[in-house]
Structures are given as C-alpha cells and as structure tokens.
Amino acid sequence: MAQYHPSEDLLAGYASGAVDEQTEALIAAHLTFCPACRRMVTEHEAIAGALLERESAPSASVAGVAAILNASPSRAPSTFNEPPLGTLSKIAPQPLARYVYEKTGEADTEGLNWTFYGPGIKRAILVGDEKGALVRLIKAEPGAVFPDHGHGSDELTLVLTGAYRDQTGRYATGDVQCAPAELSHQPIVEDDGVCFAFVVSEKPANPKNITAKIVQRLIGR
Ligand SMILES: [Zn+2]
Questions:
Q1: Ligand 1 center to residue 181 CA distance, Å?
Q2: How remote is the CA of residue 149 from the centroid of ligand 1, in Å?
Q3: Which CB contacts under 8 angstroms, 24+ apart, belong to 98-102?
Q4: What is the distance in A from the centroid of ligand 1 to the CA of 27?
Q5: What CA–CA distance (Å, rounded) separates 33 from 106?
Q6: Has residue 175 been placed in a domain?
Q7: Spatial separation of the C-alpha atoms in residues 84 and 1, rounded to whole Å
Q8: Mean pLDDT over residues 191-212, rounded?
Q9: Is residue 2 part of a domain?
Q10: 32 lies in the same domain as 68
Q11: Domain at 113, CATH number
Q12: How far is the CA of 25 from the centre of ligand 1 (A)?
C-alpha cells in the first residue's frame, strides 16, 4: 500500500483533465497501486462530470455526447492495438509503460537511452526542453547514493521498483514523492533491489481541452 500520494489538487486536476500528459501518466500509474487515490479520483470525476452537465446545453450533456460518439462510425474503435510492451511492462504499470513507449518507441528498458548520472545510477530523458529534462526514468542499484541536488521546479517522483530514502521519508514501490522546488536532498537507494523511478518536473497546469478530456474519460470506461 502506497504511503505517499499526489496532492488532492493534483488528483482533482487529473480527474478533470487539467494536468499535462506526463503527470497524467504518473498519476494513472500511481492509481494502479493505490485504492485510496482511485476513490478520490472517482469522486472528483463525478464532480467534474456534474459541472460539465450543468454548464452545457441539455442536448450536449455528457450522456448525449457519449451517445453521439458511440453511434459515430468514424469513431476510433475503443479497443486499439496495444503496443508490444516488453521488459518495460515488468517495471511499470501499463499506463506508464505505454507512455514511455509512445515517447521513445522502445518496448524494453534496455533499449532506452541511458546515461550516467552517478555511481550505480543511470537516467533516461524521455522529454526535455531548453531548460533541461522534464520527464525521465531513473535506474539505481541497491545502495547507490544520489548526488546532492536541488530542484529548479516542483518535482514528482513515482517509485516503480525498490525503494529509496532521504530526509523526508522512505519511498517504496507505488509511492509518489512531491518534492518542492526548494528541497535539496541526497536520496539513498535501499538494499531491496534495483530502484526504477519515473520523475516529472512540474510545469503549470494546462487547462486546454478539459471538456474533451472529461468526455473521453467518461466514455472510456
Ligand atoms: Zn495514493
């Protein structure tokens, strides 16, 4: 059972489609570990759906839109071919493995573009911009000590396998560390196996396409 969770604001943002795709992938993966957050997201989705219904004309209710989309022959089939997720699926829940595959075209962890980050530690940048890495996977051997580092922005880390510890706590499989920009830390990997982690540097929420995402989520289940 996960001990550390995304904030309720983030879960609400996820439920309403207001988070970016990397945060969405991270939270979707956390939800596979965490019944408590799944319940909270369901509640927020219900609220978002009710708001959408109230703000829309009666003929454009969620149920109405869903019915139209379901009836449309041009709609993509709801069961699309899943990518061939190889060893990625051994370390990452399906929503995250699919995201990594979409970003890299790699189905196996070995195929990712790993670079040296410290003794016993490698990282693969999945998404970056002129300011640096926004999204990356970390692979750290048991006992590895990270370089002491700060953060340019808030950062979310989802532990996929193994565990690490810093001055704020011990983070194990399924846990999400929400590190504020001002945190300076030096995580140490515990001895229970290789630690894979998915790390997202937070950017401001992107509210575009909220309505489309809510509808997509409501009809997608
Ligand atoms: Zn949770």
A1: 21
A2: 26
A3: 98/25, 99/21, 99/22, 99/25, 100/126, 100/137
A4: 9
A5: 24
A6: yes
A7: 28
A8: 71
A9: no
A10: yes
A11: 2.60.120.10
A12: 14
123 pLDDT exceeds 70? yes
User: 61 CA distance to ligand 1 centroid (A)?
Assistant: 31
Asked if the structure places residue 18 within a domain, the reply is yes
Residues 20 and 106 in one domain: no
Shared domain for 103 and 71, answered yes or no, is: no
124 and 189 both lie in a single domain: yes
pLDDT digits (tens, 9 = 90+) for 31-54: 999 999 999 999 999 988 888 788
In angstroms, what is the span from residue 24 Cα to ligand 1's centroid? Answer: 14
The reply to whether the predicted model has a pTM over 0.70 is: yes
Structure tokens at 172: 């194990």
Residue 34 Cα, ligand 1 centroid: separation in angstroms?
5
Token output for 79: 């069961």
* Euclidean distance between CA atoms 207 and 221, whole angstroms: 22
Chain centroid, CA 148 distance in Å:
24
**Within-domain flag for 191:** yes
Domain range holding 33?
8-81+210-219
- Work out the percent of the chain whose per-residue pLDDT is above 70: 78
